[in-house]
Amino acid sequence: MFMPKVKLRTVAAGAAMAGALIGLGAGAAGAAGWPPLQEGAYLYSGTNGSGVVTEVDLGDQDTCHALTPSALSVQIATGSASLELYSGSGCTGTGWRSGTLTQTNLPRPMLSYRVVPA
Fold this sequence. Notes:
Strand order of the largest sheet: 2-1-3-6-4-5
Largest sheet: 6 strands, antiparallel
Oligomer: single chain
């Protein structure tokens, strides 16, 4: 049966994204003790996805949010949004921006964040 190229590309892209999510989640969790990768965005007060968890509302874009306690690690899996995190309150100070598929320790404690389009 003939399938148009567009559908094959869509299937291939979906399979590649699923493989990346599975690979990132399994590899990072086994190596560093991270929680399993899941869709959405999560900030952690400890390194390697430990400590107090803040679940980010990815639909609330461009609003500055305070973090108490500060975030030391981040996990995000979404195709539509990124996070901008800041070392100061009120989205000031040194900034750091995530990608749409990120699982990492942050370079410094972050005290505020906002959701931005990817």
